[in-house]
What does this fold into?
Amino acid sequence: GACYSTEELQALGAVVARHPNVLILADEIYEHILFDNRTFVSFANACPQLRDRLLVVNGVSKAYAMTGWRIGYAGGPPELISAMRKIQSQSTSNPCSISQWAAVEALNGPQDYIQESRAVFLRRRDLVVEGLNAADGIQCPTPEGAFYVYPMIRGCIGKTSAGGTVIEDDEAFCKALLEEAGVAVVFGAAFGLSPAFRVSYASSDDELREACRLIQTFCAGLH
It folds into this structure.
């Protein structure tokens, strides 16, 4: 949920500029899901001098809630796009025409939905952050964008759950949480940062509230 500023992107660009054989992939699919009056900055705008080796990817899955339509798109140097087109045409041919036209309507049609959706995600973000920070041993930072939280669980490591599981790491925590409390989360080691877990708040308020309650109860039972 971190949001890069223009200055941070330019600092990254300065590092990459010293390595002319390095290509840049900018995944900008969460460009519309930002909170607290933050402004999205594209890498292409922050570092225009690097456009000749920059590939920007995006899609309609996140901002327009069209995950099942399977539409993404990319912009970059012509030779790179040409190579991508060759591989794509020999693997999946192309997305179905219905999905393509639906994506066109999403991108070109009224954009009111994005602001409304962002407000819902903001409410759910605050609900989940507050709920997880109320759990013993959990510290949950407030994300700046997207719809995930990534709480740290250092205060839970080394303890034993009510069901008798020793919480040796975040994977053990998540497994015990699933088996004993019925809450499914993804352990942090899968993303390279531990001890932590990831939760998506792209769910209903009631489900998120209940999940936080169950996590609080689970953590309260650690000893």
